[in-house]
Design goal:
The protein is of the alpha/beta class. The protein has helices at 2-30, 64-73, 84-89, 91-99, 119-135, 154-161, 185-195, 212-227, 235-240; strands spanning 40-41, 50-56, 79-82, 103-106, 166-167, 201-204, 231-233. It is globular. The structure holds zinc ion (ZN). Zinc ion binds next to loops.
């Protein structure tokens, strides 16, 4: 009898520990500030009023040109974390991004969740995308951003082995994880203007059909931040200001 009670207790303890472990893994996988190997950057430490605008996914045939024109009007240089297969498909748009002096970052080739992918898949996703980025004529450092900002073991290990930085963000008003913000242009812009800090990395999704609110928010964010005295840098430029 005593043995049965004892083993039930151990079983329950095991279940609780497994749950806690799973919760810790979940937190780690989705954290924008922590990873097991190498460096992940969500914000840069500086007192200067500088930020980086990062635009994820694409490029797309439909929206790239208008976004580039808008950035040009405000003299803003941004960082485009492109998906390799989209860049390959829309090479002309990708080249235009480079020609206009923006930075290209690697956002994987097919945009999978990389949580449980094998080393060879991860390597292929990253290296193939770098190749396309170089084909588009981009010559600067290529930084990486994980699809869905998810990583666990193999991805950070590979990034670290190949001296790549994982760039996340601290202001993602249109991201699912930023639940407090209504997905409307004014709310998206207001969130950024209220929460910006020197060294912030802003993330927006403007490349696909469903990015309408973010596309409308983009000029509001740029004008608002410029009025607050902020300058826009690319990720590589922002990293050079890091005082850590
Ligand atoms: Zn993405």
């Amino acid at each position: 009898m005593g043995v049965t009670v004892q083993s039930k207790k151990f079983f329950l303890l095991g279940v609780v520990l497994c749950c806690l472990f799973a919760m810790a893994l979940y937190q780690l996988a989705n954290s924008r500030q922590w990873q097991l190997f190498g460096n992940i950057v969500s914000q840069v430490k500086t007192e200067e009023k500088v930020v980086a605008l990062t635009l994820d996914d694409g490029p797309s045939m439909r929206y790239t040109e208008a976004i580039l024109q808008l950035l040009d009007v405000y003299h803003v240089k941004a960082t485009f974390f492109v998906v390799g297969q989209d860049s390959q498909r829309f090479m002309q748009q990708t080249k235009k991004i480079v020609q206009q002096g923006h930075e290209l970052g690697n956002h994987s080739y097919t945009h999978p969740s990389m949580l449980f992918k094998s080393l060879s898949t991860i390597r292929q996703e990253i290296e193939q995308t770098d190749k396309v980025i170089r084909q588009a004529g981009y010559q600067g450092d290529i930084h990486f951003r994980a699809p869905y900002t998810q990583k666990l073991l193999v991805l950070p290990w590979y990034l670290n082995q190949t001296n790549r930085l994982n760039i996340s963000w601290n202001l993602g008003p249109d991201s699912h994880s930023t639940r407090a913000v209504k997905k409307e242009a004014e709310s998206i812009a207001q969130y950024v203007l209220d929460n910006v800090q020197p060294g912030s990395i802003i993330l927006l999704h403007v490349m696909y059909e469903n990015g309408e609110a973010s596309r409308e928010a983009l000029p509001l964010i740029i004008r608002g931040l410029q009025q607050q005295g902020y300058a826009f840098l690319t990720i590589s430029e922002l990293l050079k200001r890091d005082q850590r």
